[in-house]
Amino acid sequence: MLDALLAAEELPEEYRDRHQDILCNDCDRKGTSRFHWLYHKCGSCGSYNTRLIKRETHSSSS
Ligand SMILES: [Zn+2]
């Protein structure tokens, strides 16, 4: 269900080539996921129970 939701969702152009490093809480593997505000899919087990371990920061305003 989430897969379809994410596939249908259009990311702004500036985010399409960005990826984030994630750590999966289910299988404990590190991986890379396409940038998304909320959901980061584990490439190993397909779970969305992940957390970011590194964040790409392109803007210095925060
Ligand atoms: Zn996983």
UniProtKB/TrEMBL annotation:
<keyword id="KW-0479">Metal-binding</keyword>
<keyword id="KW-0863">Zinc-finger</keyword>
<dbReference type="GO" id="GO:0006511">
    <property type="term" value="P:ubiquitin-dependent protein catabolic process"/>
</dbReference>
<keyword id="KW-0539">Nucleus</keyword>
<dbReference type="GO" id="GO:0016567">
    <property type="term" value="P:protein ubiquitination"/>
</dbReference>
<comment type="pathway">
    <text>Protein modification; protein ubiquitination.</text>
</comment>
<protein>
    <submittedName>
        <fullName>Zinc finger protein</fullName>
    </submittedName>
</protein>
<keyword id="KW-0833">Ubl conjugation pathway</keyword>
<dbReference type="GO" id="GO:0061630">
    <property type="term" value="F:ubiquitin protein ligase activity"/>
</dbReference>
<feature type="domain" description="RCHY1 zinc-ribbon">
    <location>
        <begin position="1"/>
        <end position="51"/>
    </location>
</feature>
<dbReference type="InterPro" id="IPR039512">
    <property type="entry name" value="RCHY1_zinc-ribbon"/>
</dbReference>
<dbReference type="GO" id="GO:0008270">
    <property type="term" value="F:zinc ion binding"/>
</dbReference>
<keyword id="KW-0862">Zinc</keyword>
<dbReference type="GO" id="GO:0005634">
    <property type="term" value="C:nucleus"/>
</dbReference>
<dbReference type="Pfam" id="PF14599">
    <property type="entry name" value="zinc_ribbon_6"/>
</dbReference>
